[in-house]
Hints:
The two termini are 32 Å apart. The longest helix has 27 residues. It is built from 15 helices and 18 strands. Helix 6 runs parallel beside helix 7. The protein has three domains: 75 residues; 194 residues, Rossmann fold (3-Layer(aba) Sandwich); 123 residues, Rossmann fold, CATH 3.40.50.720. Helix 7 links the parallel strand 8 and strand 9. The radius of gyration is 22 Å and the shape is globular. By secondary structure, the chain is an alpha/beta fold.
Amino acid sequence: xxxxxxxxxxxxxEALAADARCRSCGSGGLRLFLSLGDLPLPDALLRxxxxxxxxxxxxxxxxxxxxxxxxxILEDVPPEQLFVENYLYFSSFSEGxxxxxxxxxxxxxxxxxxxxxxxxxxxxxxxxxxxxNFVERGIPVLGIDPAPTQAAAAEAAGVPTLTxxxxxxxxxxxxxxxxxxxxxxxxxxxxxxxxxxGLVAGMAILLADxxxxxxxxxxxxxxxxxxxxxxxxxxxxxxxxxxxxxxxARRHGLELVRVDHFPDLQGGTLRWRxxxxxPAHESVARYLRAEEEDGLTDASYYERFAERVEGVRRNLxxxxxxxxxxxxxxxxxxxxxKGSTLVNYAGIGPQHVSxxxxxxxxxxxxxxxxxxxxxxxxxxLLEEQPDYVLLLAWNYRDEVMRQQAEYRxxxxxxxxxxxxxxxx
Length: 424
Ligand SMILES: [Zn+2]
């Protein structure tokens, strides 16, 4: 096992894993395979006057359930601490996501023959970016999202929204007042939900007998194959395979009936379709079989990943150290959660990287949590022309390369950290 913690801490963490219960099936004896250390909350950027103050840190330990194959972190940071910064996220800011959502909605309308008699619900509906597509076609919808600012934006865009956390209680009330849902959409929410069974139980309550649930989340196999360990952080409680989703669904009287893969979306995303009963599309058996053959149902698959993660840290530190020894100047791109995980886990600080740039103006002028690397506007890359830029936002690689054409024409180089650190 590759664990970064000191021996005492390691023993304590292994004991924690042994005592923990699976977030999905409730089984004990979880297998701890990766410990990323005590990390600050990845979105908790600091103002200058906060740099000398206390900064809470939480262990980040990742475990595998041998009973249901779910990968999960062991820690629960209190939600009021965890999601404080997230209220700044509006789905409609991402053009790629808008296009993807529109295509999905069009497909659902056609395949399910949705019309004025139908009812579409979305869990974590954010600013209504998805449901707007149904409203435009006269299809009744309801969004459910606890974030008041986003819910208000959704309402303003004509998307009725319930400002609550979704679960069995809310599901029962919506069904009584508005009837069962023909389609329930839940995109990029399952990993953020500490009460996984409450989420799926609520879906099973609200769903019409012939309705479908459609869920999107990043795929644990893509995470591991591409060594995207920096997408593991405290806001993401679980990391899903088809096997884990299938077992979770069955426990609530639902079945996995279709799997679609979007390899370029957020480092690799799956769309799972659930229903009360089949028939199941051939993709279900194909994915479940492949996961078994590839070892996703076995702890050793995850332990090999942990060794590769350790290798990325070693190689990246060596590379940055060598460049710094040669007198090279280095900056970074992307002050998002995954960047925070990577630099804090790898121990990369202002001694390696003098500043990080980010397009989000709310972050400029602040400092990354833990490492305290200052955040600046992307124009700083041309003003300072550092020799290298560590690309923390690797999921926007092509977009960043296009934006930074001038920096590169002047001789600037990028360092892409995963799956293995390389200079491009
Ligand atoms: Zn389990």
